[in-house]
Amino acid sequence: MNTKHNWMVALAAGALLTAVVQFAPLAAAQAQEGGRTHKDDDKGDKADKGKDPKHTVSKGEAKPLKAAQDAMQAKKYPDALLHLKEAEGVSGKTPWDEHLINEMYGYVYAHTADLANAEKAFEATLNDGFTDPGEIPGKLKVLAQVNYQLKQYDKAIDFGQRTIKAGVGDEEMNTIVAQSFYLKNDFKGTLKFVSEWADSDLKKGKEPKEQTLNLILSSCIKLDDAECTSKSLERLVTYYPKPEYWGNLVITLFQAQGQNDKSLLNTYRLANEVDVLKRPDDYTEYAQLAIEAGSPGEAQHVLEKAFQKNVFTDQRSQDKNKRLLASAETAAKQDLQSLPKIATDAESAATGDKSVGVGLAYLGYQQYDKAAEALGKGVSKGGLKNDGEAHLLLGIAQLKSGHKEDAVKSFKAVKGDANLERIANLWSLHAKQA
């Protein structure tokens, strides 16, 4: 509050300057009034002819406004208010009188922290035709700030957008407008304004602020828009790859429509890679899916990781997963012994599916170079039952073996399954961040 009050006080200083300029010659004239001659009146009349009548204080207002000015300069604000109310009650006020009264009211109210009345006074001067055009952008900015404080969000948005349109908008002003939309529960308005703000930053070569992207995410959630939520999380992960953002993004993958065992297993693979697997059941299901897919080495690795992290806390869960681990270890041992023969048979196979199977097995045993070689052969030979998953696995093997550019190309080649395509896009994003 204090910061914004200071803004209002700074704006109010202009009112005092206006009053000083206006009343300094008036004070001198009043001091001489009693000793004037007819000659002096003639001179005064001639001098008055050079003045702009639109910017001249009317005779009835001179005394109370001068008194108000003196009180303002002496920082006697209650007295200044009394004199201003007296001036306000004078009949026959000119538009210029009204302008000065509002400027001075604004000054006094700002210095007494009465922001509501200060706002009304300065708003009244905004479009009265007497405010210098060069001062209007500054007034718009302060009025946006003060209305935001006063929780008058519609007015904060109006003045904020006018400030931006006037070319003096900044990050603070964008934030005021965005949060005003949000706090008045206009989430569509928030989403539109903040998205345009973020896009504008990107066009200027600036990364969007984390707070900005979170406001987009929150608006999507409030609108109960699953697609919007997913996209906003992807954008957050792009610029701020924090575990909590990756974790929330992975949740949207698990909730995606059309999930099958293959896409679910590959979702677990990504979740494991970015280290956001949390629940004991996640590790168990991941291991079971890996075994069923012909990757017992992967199941063994996942369960060993879970036990190292003490994921399984109750005895029943520990016993169940120890049995699953033992089963994975037995299958992995047998699989490793048979792999060389399977790899030889794959060379003469009509399609690349056997080579892909060999590559998947090596991937589970974390022998990434061998995995990339076998998967590459399978993709090249073609005739695959699931070309999209083969390219995805190839990209993972290439990434884990240190070939990021090749991995990104493979991820981009994943087609035919919306869920796998999305997972591949996220692997590609992770590859660029790795």
Q: What is the succession of H and E elements? A: HHHHHHHHHHHHHHHHHHHHHH
The CATH topology label of the domain at 241-433 is Serine Threonine Protein Phosphatase 5, Tetratricopeptide repeat
| Percent helix | over 70%
The CATH architecture of the domain at 241-433 would be: Alpha Horseshoe
Question: What is the typical, i.e. mean, pLDDT?
Answer: 88
Derived structural class? mainly alpha
Q: Would you report the number of β strands?
A: 0
Low-pLDDT runs of 5+ residues are 15-21, 24-51
- The number of helical elements comes to 22
Fold and architecture overview:
The chain contains 22 helices and no strands. Among the domains are: 1-26 and 59-131, no CATH class; 241-433, Serine Threonine Protein Phosphatase 5, Tetratricopeptide repeat (Alpha Horseshoe), CATH 1.25.40. The model is unreliable at 15-21 and 24-51 (pLDDT under 50). With 434 residues, it is an all-alpha fold. The chain starts with a helix and ends with a helix. Helix 3 (59-73) packs parallel to helix 5 (95-111), helix 8 (153-165) packs antiparallel against helix 9 and helix 19 (368-381) runs antiparallel to helix 20.
